[in-house]
Amino acid sequence: MIEKNKLLITKILLILVIYFRCNWGIVTKPTLGINLLVDVIGFAFVAFLSWNNKKDFKESILNPAILWLVLFQGLQFVYGHFGLVFDAGMYSMQYTIMTVLPAFVAYQLLWHNRQDLIDVLSDVGGIVILATFVTNVCYDRLWIDALHGEFYRLGEVPGGTVIDTGNLYILMLIPMMYSLIVNRQIKRYLFQCIVGSIGILLAGSKSSVGPLIVVFAIMLLGTSKDKKTFRRNIAIIGAVGVVGLVAIMAVPILYEVIGSRIVELFTQTGTTDYDLHTSTGQRMAVLAAFKAHFPESPIFGHGFYAFKSMPYSQLEEYVEDGVVMYRNIQTHMNFMELLFSFGFVGLICYYWFPIWETIKIVRCKKGLSKLLGLAFIITFLSIDLGLDMFYKYMTPYYTYLLIYILIKIDSTSQEVE
């Protein structure tokens, strides 16, 4: 009975794992309990699948992906738990487990259903996008202001900010865009793709808006069979890009949530007169502080999330009882946070695997693996430029483990040929 409905059970469990971890988080006891319950059920199902196919399970464990996961989590544990170099008191073993566990369960679910990977990912992504959008509408109080004509960035959910929601949308959209554009499953996924794209625009996150355009281009070019089709698709991408840019800059709603942030990026980048009221201004100030103090300990870093505990990280302005004050912030960039926390040792320990995956994906011959792999890698490069992802989010581990499955699919298909 279970084996017969393996695909359906996999989709349901994957939806629950991703939705609850990314939308509700694990900070409060109720949300922690729900996530733990979902993960335990998912783990039990994975154990059942593994018991029935021990050889396949062994391959899913003894590989570079799990080696990377164990090595980096080990490094993070040593720094965080023992307060190596500097103890900022931010590390939580419970938090780490509840971040890595859902990603591992998702990986195993996908591994045991990799022959139907695009079908599983597309269906799961569509439901997660719709559920996330509904959750946002019910939770985000700014929707009330929007209904009265006052537009702000929309997308906050109980367990994530507008940026987190935008990033979740794009990660769920990538497989659906492949199904929509490459496999031509328009009726099945068009509505979900539209909702996800609208959600990204409303969130106003540069880290997900940019990849949305790039992913569209990758998928469209991937359908090119000859030079004529390739040139036509290039023209379509250019036209969509121009129309999109004009809309973002000319439509008041879109300019408010994303256009103004693009302008801010150009006006604030490179200046030494940092406007701490803007996101880019804060990030430029963080970059300046990083450049000044990173050389103090470049090899092994300053300690787990040490930057936020330093006096020079008081860069976010806020008002309390009419008094302007400043609070400490993180670097908001995965590369810088890794370097500052663990030095070059940590940067290499984390990024050797994504670099290895990039090389493998470029060499892939199977269209599915190459297109999806490139889309995920480029998307996460953009996300890592805007957020420190390695500790708080399950999505990097979910994504890099998924890319490994794509590489495995490609290598297996070549062996068969």
Written overview of the protein:
The protein is mainly α and 417 residues long. Helix content is 72%, strand content 3%. The chain is built from 16 helices and 2 strands. The protein has a two-stranded antiparallel ribbon. It starts with 5 loop residues before the first helix and ends with a helix. The mean pLDDT is 90.
Key terms:
single chain; about 425 residues; mainly alpha; two-stranded antiparallel sheet; 16 helices; about 5% strand
Extract low-pLDDT stretches. Answer: none
Tell me the overall shape.
globular
Q: Total strand count, please?
A: 2
Summed up, the helix count is 16
* Helix/strand structural class: mainly alpha
Strand order of the largest sheet: 1-2
Strand content: under 5%
> Biggest sheet, in brief?
2 strands, antiparallel
Helix content: over 70%
Distance between the termini: 33 Å
Kindly report the average pLDDT value: 90
Give, in order, the helices and strands.
HHHHHHHHHHHHHEEHHH
Question: What kind of oligomer do you see?
Answer: single chain
Rg, nearest Å: 22 Å
Compact summary:
It is built from 16 helices and 2 strands. It has 417 residues and is mainly alpha-helical.
Topology at a glance:
Layout: H1 6-23, H2 29-52, H3 54-61, H4 64-82, H5 93-111, H6 117-139, H7 142-147, H8 162-182, H9 186-203, H10 206-222, H11 227-250, H12 252-268, H13 279-293, E1 314-320, E2 323-328, H14 334-363, H15 367-386, H16 395-416
Antiparallel strand pairs: 1-2
